[in-house]
Amino acid sequence: MERPKSLKATSTEMVRVQLMESLRNLKDLSPTSVTNIIDTNGRYVLDCIRHQMFGLANLQTLACNQVLCLQLVRYFYKKLSNAAVQRPGGLHIVLVGDGSFTDQIHPVIWLVPLDTISDTVLYSPWNCSIDAKVAYGISTGGIQPKHRAFRRRSPEMEHQERPPNWNCMRAQYQNHIPEIILGPKRTFSDDVRQLGDIANVKELLKKHNRLVILYELNDGLPLYQIIGVIAFLLRFMPPYKATIHLAAGLEYRGPASPNVQMLREQYAYTPEGTMMTLKNRQFKYYHFYQKLRSML
Questions:
Q1: Would you call 133 exposed, middle or buried from its count of C-beta atoms within 10 A (0-12, 13-18, 19+)?
Q2: Residue 193 has pLDDT above 70, yes or no
């Protein structure tokens, strides 16, 4: 197969058309695949990332691991291909998984790297887990700060910080934030992996423009790399813009004690063992809620 022409010699539309063709034909490079040799389609996608996203730290570091980068691109391309927006308001992508943060920091703008990402919204305070009720509320878009409640798994209970708003990244893009890691839930079962196929989730996309993605790749990656891949894809495929919602806790998993003062100044910090839940909520999409309960 003939190698595609240089990106510099083609127009933006030609690049988009060729990229869509390469994305449709990307090979499975997962550990269970027959081969992990990168073919012409994979090389073209990597070329697009290097040339079209030059200077975007989110993807430049990820692109160094070419196989992993293409795995992520292929995974989210397949998810976004089914995300036709039929109502006003833009696409809302809900990432469901196992969240944590480390003692490393990076610019907030890495979580809103391009204008294809309208905003990235975090719901959990730092060092706090979430239950299925919260994940459901984030997924359906019905959660508000006044709905939240906190509980601890130890007898001592401290007053919990409750900011009047969610932790929105676009408004803080000039600041820094701890590195968030998103991985798969350890309790994922085969039926839960089919979460995107149940009628409730399809209805959320059709009626509310909310694409719920159960993250199930690898052992955990920085959230900014995952969002970088989504931002890259949305630059070339409809709906061309989305808001990211993180339906995951943010428990601390660093080697040393966290900088509590910095975390409180950034948003809010809760003592170890705290879980965020919702009070007095009803579940319109009950089957979906039951699925979330089985994995969170």
A1: buried
A2: no
Give how far the C-alpha of residue 202 lies from the chain's centroid of Cα atoms, to the nearest Å: 18
Q: Which helix (H) or strand (E) holds 272?
A: strand 269-278
Are 285 and 140 in contact by the 8 Å Cβ rule? The answer is: yes
Percent of the chain with pLDDT over 90: 52
In sequence order, what are the residues at sequence separation of 6 or more whose Cβ sits closer than 8 angstroms to the Cβ of residue 153?
273, 275
The string of DSSP letters for 99-159 reads: EEEEEEEEEGGGGS-STTEEEEEE-SPEEEEE-HHHHHHHHHT---GGGEEEEESSS--PP
**Residue 2: partners with Cβ closer than 8 Å, 6 or more residues away:** none
User: Which amino acid belongs to residue 58?
Assistant: N
Q: Are 61 and 110 in contact (CB under 8 A)?
A: no
3-state class (DSSP) for residue 242 = strand
Whether pLDDT at 53 is above 80: no
Q: Which two tokens stand for residue 268?
A: 């809010």
Question: What are the pLDDT digits (tens) for 220-258?
Answer: 999 999 999 999 999 998 888 999 999 999 999 988 899
Rg (CA), the chain: 19
* Interacting residues of 205 by C-beta distance below 8 A, sequence separation 6+: 82, 83, 211, 212
Tokens of 58: 């989110």
Residue 78: both structure tokens together:
């397949």
SS3 state of residue 27: coil
**Contact predicate 193/215, CB 8 Å:** no
